[in-house]
Amino acid sequence: MKSGTTWSQAIVAMLIAGTDGVDIANGTPSPWVDHKLRPIEDVLSELDMQSGRRCMKTHTPLDGLPNWHDVSYIMVYRHPIDVHVSMRNFISNAVESPLKALFPEDQSAGFRHFLNGGLEGGDLDMPSLEAIVHHYEASRLAQRENVLILHYADMQRDPEDAVARIGMHIGTPRPPETIAAIVAATSFESMKSNAHRFTPYAGQGVWKNDAGFFDSGSGRKWEGRLTAEDLRAYDQRMEQLLSSEARHWLEHGDAPAPDR
Fold it and tell me: Which residue, among 99, 61, 112, 79, has the nearest Cα to 4 in the 3D structure?
């Protein structure tokens, strides 16, 4: 969550349609299958009625999904601290959420919940560092040809390459002019200014502000919010969870690490 799934969902839907004029806000043609605002029976019924290529959005890790060889999987990751800060903004924009207790006004206290695995600790269903690492490791270790692993920062640096790679992965390569149109339509600015097309459940009173679903699209969002002690605690936890190489990619993608 908060790593670029809605962005990728829009790209996939447009690549399948071959046009940038696709809306995903109402869950059609691309439902968010593990979100509980809609009965799963309704979601499955709508999917069954589709006659063409289908795409679905999920935050479930790869080891919780069926391994179907005729399905293309795309997993997207982002620097874990940026995920946490973006999640804080996401929850504050929700009209109601059972996760609000994880994000108290004291941001350092909320960050410790993130490092420790929720209010009780160790809960992989919570938006926690351990849950992100578990999701990442399930994808990284799978080594399956039908799994494409992307990083938010790489997608930001070269969105044309990201769209082209996704198109090749799902078997819908598109000409440069179509790729350029999709890149423009799925830019952060475009998706935020067209929230009625892209925000899940837009116009249904789920969010205080539909455009607020797209917070800033920036990186290193923790600067000025977390203390040096908070960041040391994060470093210690990451050393326990991941090798240095795996950690580098999860935080920065294919780019060199910036100075902290």
Answer: 79
